[in-house]
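Hi all, posting the design record for the shared folder.

TITLE: backbone redesign
STEP: 1 of 1
STRUCTURE INPUT:
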């Protein structure tokens, strides 16, 4: 049996509530607000991986990179 698959389909892993919670926590941890609208969770992942593509404030970019590094370390510790 052949299953048709839409190869252009994006698999969303972050539901809207979790996305809003994640953005609120990031803003609270960094201590600054940034006005960025993401079209989907892929944009959010790109933002966490390359914040300089979305914002110009170098201090904020470095804080987001530090937060991302912490998340990567915690992921390894907790095997998430």
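Okay, here is what came back for every position:
SEQUENCE:
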């Amino acid at each position: 049996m052949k299953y048709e698959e839409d190869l252009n389909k994006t698999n969303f892993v972050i539901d809207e509530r979790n996305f809003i919670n994640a953005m609120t926590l990031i803003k609270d941890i960094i201590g600054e607000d940034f006005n960025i609208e993401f079209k989907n969770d892929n944009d959010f992942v790109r933002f966490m991986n390359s914040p300089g593509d979305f914002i110009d404030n170098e201090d904020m970019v470095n804080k987001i990179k530090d937060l991302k590094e912490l998340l990567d370390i915690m992921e390894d510790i907790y095997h998430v």
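COMMENT: The chain has one domain: 16-78.
Let me know if anyone wants the other runs.
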